[in-house]
Amino acid sequence: MHYQHQVLKTSLNDPMMDSNVVAAGTGIYGSASNQLYGPHGIFVDVNLDLYVADSYNDRVQLFQSGELHGITVAGSGSLIPTITLHYPTGVILDADKYLFILDSGNHRIVGSGANGFRCLVGCHEMGSQSNQLSGPVSLSFDHFGNIFVSDQRNSRIQKFLLMKDSFDLSFNQPKFCPTATWNSNGITVANQSIVGRHPNAFFVNTNNTVYVANQEKNTIVMWQEGSVNLPQIISGGFMQPLSLFVTSNGDIYIDDGDHNGRVLKWSAATSTFAAVMNINSSCASLFVDIDDTLYCSMPDHHQVVKRSLSSLMNSNAVAAGTGIYGSASNQLGSPRGIFVDVNLDLYVADCGNNRVQLFQSGELHGITVAGSTTLYPTITLRCPVGVILDADKYLFIVDSGNHRIVGSGMNGFRCLAGCYGMGSQSSQLTSPSSLSFDRSGNIFVTDQTNHRIQKFQYLEESCDMSSVVETMYSSALTSNHPIYPRTGCDISYYYEAIKIQVYKSGHYSFNSMSNINTYGYMYAKYFDPFSPSAFLISADDDSSGNSQFNISIPLEINIEYILVVTTFNSNVTGPFSIRVSGPNRVGLERLNSPPVIQSTYLSMLTENSQHFPQPFETGKYYYESIQINVDMSGLFIISSKSRSDLSGSIYKNSFNPLNPTENLLEVDNNGCSDNQFKLLIALEVNTKYILVVATSQANVTGTFSIIVSGPTKAVLERTSISSTSTSKSTSTATTTKTVSSTSKSISTATAFSGSLPFKYKLEFTIDSIPYSNK
């Protein structure tokens, strides 16, 4: 009863028909679980479960047999986000209990399936054309699966035929087990002689036909995987295509935007070319969705545009991005790879923002599903350029800046290929640009800078977990353990590094058990506590629940792995155990760590300190110069602590205020939280270094401390600055603390990268005498 906000029921075996019973709703409109607001269509399955199209609440409610409190299974308020509905008026279920909903306010029919919800009919806009609806009210299936719809405002009943080959996708979307593993050593299936230099455009279809664009020769090369026949070569009027897409009928869509301002279609039936989209830049990625809509990502314009291939209109519509570089939810920064699923949801590899964005069908505001700005941190990306989904909608991402392929799963993200640093070895990648699956689940990658196509074989045996072997390891973090900067700056996290010996390649799970909040990090080949992001292949905090980590990861023989067990909070100690589950036992051995020395320098910036202004501003920017010497070469972390916003610049031999880039090694002004700097730098014995500590805001004074951590003590002394040299002044307190960690000796200093706290005009005082470079 639409106006009574209720569903009633009565038994047809009751001859009096006066015993109506409330099936759902209180009779008062509302959005609580026991309320309805203007209900329309209803459906009762063989379990006597009641489904209600709760129109004004924009949702579908399930009232299980005998229950008066409903569960939202589609629309607003569902526990797991499903699909956005607007005034649904009809709902039915198929034989597999998938929902089919008449989304009247959106003038369409949507349906659920193994891959979630998707639009079935009326997917573009309201109207009276044969593929459009206007204010539909109810729907029904016939015996053959055809859909009948009462198209109210068009005063007609429409029939939509079931296509037996519906959603015949041209690309592969394999289904993987949670422990799926790929061989870390890739096979080169095409080298520079075939693909040319810096390959980008690449595609593998469901017949395992491989397509790649040779930009040097302006050709498309295609061959059957594993075939000994010569490749077929297609050439035409396109120039240096960045991307291509192949549809199920064999037509090829080719980027030709940079030189000719268009996207071309090569027809497999006629072997002819035709322009199908006009654009004003190159398309870094192309995609044709199930509705025959063509998408183009334009990195130079920070936008993704689309055009219906079934429409006579030639204009492009915006699919994502405002056209202005930015990181807001409706903006993109140099977007690259794109993927559109069967729900018409758009995924964008947002390279410049180091994230992957999901734009749900019809939405211009995206949701970050991978990268540093996700609601729940997932994985750190650096210029992702490709994204695809498997059959379970798990993400596979080309993390180009980190030279690797990463994938998501039940246990979060993990590295799949290129996990051992950039390079040209079979296990390495350098600036990969795209990926594709073949029919068997193997991963193909365009290894751009290595001028090759790599194939990483899917190891089916990695899914065989019938015989699981467990290995246990027990220890305790104590105040005598080494410490390191887990979060980047706070060097007060105790840790234990454990060497892992793998006797059989396969998928392994590492679960912590402790009454302290543990954090786990897995490294391949090497662990450097001063650079904890290097060689990192997986990390986890709380996947096991109860503040315990669970790292689920493929491991291979002949590779040394290091598990670092530490804590979520600093300065925490306590016992812990690690349970390792996998196809064989593993060797676990604690690594001994040589000592790390912490030296602390305390001082204060006052109104009598040396100073210089920022360009074009008034006020004094105070600074202090500190000479640093070490008696052992190695890698050091130099960080600040203060209530003031500080920047740090380090120089070799001398600091010249009149030429602040001279002798500059490195600068940082926000490497740590709370506006403090952190410098990770190699220092050499018998060399003088000058650290310049400066305020980032005018007229700010206050105390500060400098902490230098490394393989030996550091001597820090305040200096007075002249344009050519330094002279020691009154020393401040320096304390030294010995802890333990691992160190690596490096003989070359880190290159300068960043911005100086001063430039252009310089004004400062030395010994009460004013100086200026004006």
UniProtKB/TrEMBL annotation:
<dbReference type="GO" id="GO:0008270">
    <property type="term" value="F:zinc ion binding"/>
</dbReference>
<feature type="repeat" description="NHL">
    <location>
        <begin position="323"/>
        <end position="362"/>
    </location>
</feature>
<protein>
    <recommendedName>
        <fullName>NHL repeat containing protein</fullName>
    </recommendedName>
</protein>
<dbReference type="InterPro" id="IPR011042">
    <property type="entry name" value="6-blade_b-propeller_TolB-like"/>
</dbReference>
<dbReference type="InterPro" id="IPR001258">
    <property type="entry name" value="NHL_repeat"/>
</dbReference>
<feature type="repeat" description="NHL">
    <location>
        <begin position="27"/>
        <end position="66"/>
    </location>
</feature>
<keyword id="KW-0677">Repeat</keyword>
<dbReference type="Pfam" id="PF01436">
    <property type="entry name" value="NHL"/>
</dbReference>
<feature type="repeat" description="NHL">
    <location>
        <begin position="428"/>
        <end position="459"/>
    </location>
</feature>
<dbReference type="InterPro" id="IPR050952">
    <property type="entry name" value="TRIM-NHL_E3_ligases"/>
</dbReference>
